Amino acid sequence: MSRIVVFGAGGRAGRRVLAEAVERGHQVTAVVRDPARHTGLAAPGVTVVTGDATDAERVAEIAAGHDAVISSVYQEDLAHEEFYLRAARALLGGLAKAGVPRLVVVSLGTVLPGAPEVPAEYRPFVEARAAELATFRAAETDLDWLLVAPPPTMLDPDGERTGHYRTSVDTALDTPDDAPLFRYADLAVALVDEATEPRHHRTLLAVRSY
Q: CATH for 3-208?
């Protein structure tokens, strides 16, 4: 059994990570900025706390004594680049202080080499996530981090877990036009797999359906 922190636990990916981790028998600390907005997270095996992934001191306080951290965060009230750079730096610094060895971060498929171009209105978001990746790659740290990028499309919020996914290191996976949407439930499988039994290290990992 592992002790896992999930930042962004109230989101679509975060909620599925909680369910996946608990189903496997792990103890989970679910972190949200405002617990009142995210009802239904508390459950056997889950402790809900207030926190902010951009606050290194709070990251360290929450993460102390845990085995791994999974981060799937988004914040509307900060510019994209400011938010993701602050979160990357806070996670790097806070987890180093807490002595947590493993970090898995949900990234973006459009930052992968070979990913399709995005419309101009989405480019600031993509550029922010690319800057986030660059921050991790430039960090001098003992933290074993991994960024996981689902396909650069909408994900299926309702599809049931299959437990299967394909991976590719630092390059986009070919996705046929008729391929089913990748399921949040299977993204959660990949995230918990990598948090508890790391197979990829300090890189960007693409994941998608078979």
A: 3.40.50.720
